[in-house]
Design a protein that fits this description.
heterodimer, A: alpha/beta, 6-stranded mixed β-sheet, 4-stranded antiparallel β-sheet, about 40% helix, B: mainly alpha, 5 strands, about 70% helix
Chain lengths: ~250, ~375
């Protein structure tokens, strides 16, 4: 069974049909790409999937469960985590604390245990620290764990955002232009990281990207959006050779 | 014994940064407390300053609690004096009613504090429910209004007690319809008279330490991280599954409850408690906000220090008569600049104590 099934999804802002009749099926473990010209509705699809917007029509199913129209925090609990196009870190918190905020719903102790530093607090905090550092190691950020997030270089901020999303233990990870603003070396490194994350966490990943080198390098399947509608869907190599895609997005 | 001591020191050095910083904060307050106690017993403190000791604790608690809303939660509240007012009157009301029933101040006063905190916290919760869902300046406007409303309602509230129980009125004492021997507890604009003077400097310091303990430990816990995450980026906090309204309400209610504690402390330091613009009005709320801004938004220790300095300053300048408030304003501006202008911060970092120590160490190593 597919991990994510989207049927006939649509949303309008005033008179503008931002996304229309959008269908998407992602198998478990797949690395899926969503591409298209600027303003095609890619980020809107992400916002629909994560519950930031409520769709006017359509059904979103995660692992067979209907999550259409649920609140974004419930959708996160159901197993979808995301990163943002313009990085949204907790800037005044340390790198470690950023990841620990991601762990928030997986480790519990009540407010009083926190204020009075009860044994439960020490135990759970130690577990959280251990898991957060483990995650930071995956992204090579353990040296910077006490830095403020805003003091990290750009490429590492992107990585920290992915680490924070993974901390919520999602089934599906949505990456919104992870390589935006990166130089070719950083992009190469990011591709390796994404592959590694997929292998290590057995993660299903849906990503929006404009860097065609990254898209053709790591995505197994693609959906091309244009004017809010699906232009083409299928295996990466086939899609990239589709004459309509070349005309609308890639350029002849 | 010696070895144990060294162990403790090395443990402290290796402990995490937050713990160290918290210990320094508690240490400064305890040291200040001991110093003042010694000076008082040596007779070196004027009556003027003695009278200021409890208000100093009150303002420090208020500044710390407001910093929880403004600095940690990142929402602007302009009605902190309103919550203080609720706490003050709830606590004073309780004490006045219970003076007969519970003669021992050791039991009565903590109960009064608890009641003040719960009442103020409850009002914080009530106001937070509708307002914290909104973004932007709404909270500032609503809290501002709340502060004024509370003050004005108390100004025309009459509460009396006789053998049949409590009587309420919004008109005057006569309309309470008390039996013979009944007692008026809250007398409108004249407020509550004859509250037992239970507040002492020691209790004030203990309450300040408890407030700091609660706020500092909350910040460095799971809930505190969630609150600060909401401050830094609400959308991202939601995307990792943090319940925005819940944590905003939590921070705001705790902040209000602690303001209530300060109110109870304040009320039990006076023989007559009235809701004047001077003590619970808009100016007071702004004054508390000034403490927070000057001490550094989100900097808890700074709040305590700036509250103390800015409360003492006008009194110390009393000798300057008419020029007092002028010089107070100039000093305030100078302190703001010294604390927060980028050039001054650079200078301060260059010549800071830590840097000097590091330089000396380097020199030693070079030699």
């Amino acid at each position: 069974m597919a991990l994510l099934e989207v049927q006939n999804l649509g949303i309008s802002f005033g008179g503008l049909r931002a996304v229309d009749d959008f269908n998407l099926t992602i198998e478990k473990g797949c690395l899926y790409g969503l591409i298209g010209p600027n303003g095609a509705g890619k980020t809107t699809v992400f916002n629909l999937l994560t519950g930031v917007y409520k769709p006017n029509v359509g059904i979103i199913k995660l692992d067979g469960k209907d999550i259409t129209g649920r609140k974004n925090i419930d959708i996160n609990k159901a197993g979808i985590a995301r990163t943002f196009q313009n990085i949204r870190l907790f800037k005044e918190l340390s790198v470690l604390d950023n990841v620990k905020v991601g762990l928030h719903n997986r480790y519990h102790y009540n407010t009083l245990a926190g204020i009075f530093r009860l044994p439960k607090y020490r135990k759970v905090e130690a577990q959280m620290n251990a898991e957060a550092i483990e995650l930071l190691k995956v992204f090579g950020l353990e040296e910077e764990k006490d830095f403020l997030a805003s003091n990290l270089p750009y490429g590492k901020q992107r990585k920290l955002e992915i680490a924070r999303a993974l901390a919520t233990n999602p089934k599906l990870l949505l990456l919104d232009e992870p390589a935006a603003g990166m130089n070719p070396n950083e992009t190469q490194e990011l591709m390796d990281t994404i592959r590694f994350v997929r292998e290590k966490f057995n993660m299903t990943i849906l990503l929006i990207e404009h860097d065609m080198k990254l898209v053709s390098g790591i995505c197994e399947k693609l959906t091309v959006l244009n004017f809010g509608r699906v232009l083409c869907q299928g295996e990466t190599a086939e899609v990239l050779q589709n004459p309509e895609v070349v005309k609308a997005y890639l350029g002849e | 014994m010696q070895k144990e001591k060294i162990n403790l020191i090395s443990k402290f050095k290796n402990a995490n940064k937050n713990f160290k910083s918290n210990c320094i904060t508690y240490g400064i307050i305890l040291a200040a407390f001991l110093l003042i106690q010694i000076l008082v017993s040596a007779g070196a403190v004027s009556n003027l300053i003695k009278g200021l000791l409890v208000p100093l604790c009150t303002y420090a608690i208020l500044a710390v609690s407001l910093n929880l809303t403004v600095g940690i939660l990142g929402e602007l509240s302009l009605g902190h004096a309103g919550f203080m007012c609720v706490g003050a009157f709830a606590g004073a009301f309780f004490s006045k009613c219970m003076v007969g029933a519970i003669p021992s101040a050791i039991i009565r006063f903590p109960l009064a504090i608890l009641i003040g905190a719960v009442c103020a916290g409850f009002f914080g919760f009530l106001i937070g429910i509708p307002v914290l869902r909104l973004k932007g300046d709404y909270l500032a406007i609503v809290t501002l209004a709340f502060g004024e409303i509370v003050k004005n309602i108390i100004n025309c509230l009459y509460v009396g007690r006789d053998s049949k129980g409590f009587h309420f009125s919004m008109e005057d004492t006569a309309s309470l319809g008390l039996e013979e021997g009944g007692e008026v507890i809250i007398k409108g604009a004249q407020g509550i008279t004859g509250t037992p003077n239970d507040s002492t400097f020691t209790i004030g310091i203990v309450l300040l330490l408890i407030t700091l303990f609660i706020v500092l430990n909350l910040i460095h816990s799971r809930d505190g991280r969630a609150i600060m995450a909401i401050r830094d980026n609400t959308i991202a906090a939601e995307s990792v599954g943090i319940h925005i309204t819940k944590y905003k309400l939590m921070a705001f209610s705790i902040s209000a409850a602690l303001a209530g504690v300060a109110g109870v402390l304040y009320a039990h330091n006076l023989s007559t408690l009235t809701a004047l613009p001077k003590n619970f009005g808009y100016n007071q709320s702004i004054m508390i906000l000034v403490f927070v801004v000057l001490g550094g938004i989100g900097n808890i220790r700074g709040s305590v220090i700036s509250a103390v300095i800015l409360t003492l300053l006008p009194e110390l300048l009393r000798g300057l008569k008419d020029y007092r408030m002028l010089i107070y304003a100039v000093i305030l501006i100078a302190m703001m600049l010294f604390n927060w202008s980028p050039k001054c911060r650079e200078l301060r970092e260059k010549y800071s104590f830590k840097q000097l120590l590091a330089k000396r160490k380097n020199k030693k190593e070079a030699a």
